[in-house]
Every structure is written in C-alpha cells, then in structure tokens.
Amino acid sequence: MSVVEKEIDCANAARGVWLVKVPKYISTRWEKAESLTEVGRLKIAKGSGGKPEITFKLAEDLVNMKDTGDKTVIPRDHQFAVSTIPNQVLAVFSEPRGDNSGESTLGQGESNGKLVLEGHVVQKGECRPIVNEKYMQLKRQSILQASQPQRSVKQIAKIVQNFKPVSDHKNNIEFEQRKKAEGKKSREDKEKVMDMLFAAFEKHQYYNLKDLEKITRQPIPYLKEILKEICNYNAKNPHKNMWELKPEFRHYKDKNNTS
Q1: What are the chain's domains?
Q2: Which ranges carry the TFIIF beta subunit HTH domain (predicted)?
C-alpha cells in the first residue's frame, strides 16, 4: 500500500469558517455557475433577543440561468439557522489547482500536490428558503414532477422496423405444411395393414410406434388396435417401448430357444 505525502499550508489555521448546508437546487446552480463572479449576498443584522438575523439572497443571474436544463423556478430569498458545534473539531482543506507561477487559481489546471488549510469550523448553518410565493411555486413543481409516471404510452405514426411480431412461429408453420403434404391418414383394410406389419417385422424384430406409423401411414389409435392383436409391447429394458410379434406370428426362431 503506497502512502502519498503532501505539504500542508497552515497559514489560515486560525481563521474561523462556517459549515453551511444548502438546498440541492442551490448546489446544482452553483456547480454550473463557474463563469459568475457573484453567486449571492449574505446579510447579518441584529435581531430581537441579541441573536443575529442572517439572510441570504441568491444572485439574480444565478436564479435566471437558462442553460441549466432545469426549468424549475427557484426562490431567491433564504434565511440561515446557525448553531454551534460542541465537542467537535472540524476543518476545511482545499487542493489548489493552477500554473507554475506559485499563485493558486482554483478550478484551473492540475493539482500542484499541496493542501491548504482554509480554516477551522466555528459555526454550523442551514440555509432555508423563506416561505413566499416563489417557494410555494417551487413546492408545487416538485410535487407535480414526483407524481409524473416514469413510463408513459406514446402513440407512433410509423411502424417500428426493429421488431415486427409474427402471427405464427416457424416450427408451427412447418408442421402444418408437412401435415398438408402428407394428407389426412385414412384407415386401410385391416388385412392390408397386417401384411405391411408382417413385412416390416421380417426385416427387424423390434419397432417403436413412431416407425410403424410411418411404415403403415395409419392413424395411431387404429394402428394400436391391430398391434395389440399380433404384437407384444416391451415395457422393460433392453427393448423398452418397442413392439415385437407374438410368438405365434413369428417366422423366425427366438435366439434364446435355439437348439
């Protein structure tokens, strides 16, 4: 694990700073206001009870920014709620960026590898909008935006060519075409079907039902009726799910009974 050592400028160690929390809409505008020289003005006045009244007014150029991509109307007037920070030691550091002239220009160039102690936190503040017409308008816009559905139905005028639904799948179409090509299977004379079966069993001893269906081209229910008369069905290995002729119809010798 590498450790990076940086020089710290502590010239401002005795300076007191405020730690202020601002609304998100203010921080968003500040991030996009690099070209502005003034973002707002802070006013501290004596209030009742000896406590100061602190108000903050955003710069008009910041409120009326047009290139933020946000059409929300933000309030300009705010007030500060200030409190002390007991039993805590907080400090603010910055990392100056600038040229090699030795003068810090924050936000420009690369880091010079030096940290600056800007001061220690003496008070904590919270920037709150003043309840007026501008603020109520902001709240209405926020509620309307939150109530908008994330997805919406959009009517299109042209057919989208990326995906076109099909009425039927390829395998179903091929099956129907094959079924039409083979034609409807009609029952042949029983004697004729038995002759076809005997001829087939002269070539092989065992057949499955699908092969016998292709050979005889007969409906399966009708074929099963005939097979039950002249064949035995094997439900066990090694010839499971296969048909073979009954012994009385065989024209060949059983290998297990050969003498």
Answers
A1: 7-145 (no CATH), 187-257 (1.10.10.10)
A2: 187-250
Under 8 Å CB-to-CB from 58, ≥6 apart: which residues? Answer: 26, 29, 39, 40, 74, 75, 76, 77, 78
Distance CA 116, CA 114 (A): 7
pTM for the predicted model, two decimal places: 0.44
Tell me if 78 sits within 8 A of 126, measured CB to CB: no
d(C-alpha 237, C-alpha 83), whole Å: 88
Give all strands (DSSP E) within 47-132, no chain letters. 52-58, 77-83, 91-94, 97-98, 110-111, 114-129
CB atoms within 10 A of CB 44: 11
For residue 169, the one-letter residue type is H
Q: What is the pLDDT along the chain (259 residues), one digit of tens a residue?
A: 555 667 888 888 889 888 889 888 888 888 887 777 788 888 888 877 777 888 889 888 888 876 556 667 788 888 888 887 777 788 888 887 655 444 444 444 455 668 898 998 888 889 988 888 888 888 888 888 888 888 888 888 887 776 666 677 777 787 777 666 655 667 888 999 999 999 999 999 999 999 998 898 888 889 999 999 999 999 998 999 999 999 888 865 454 444 3
Task: Report the DSSP beta bridge partners of residue 19.
Answer: 124
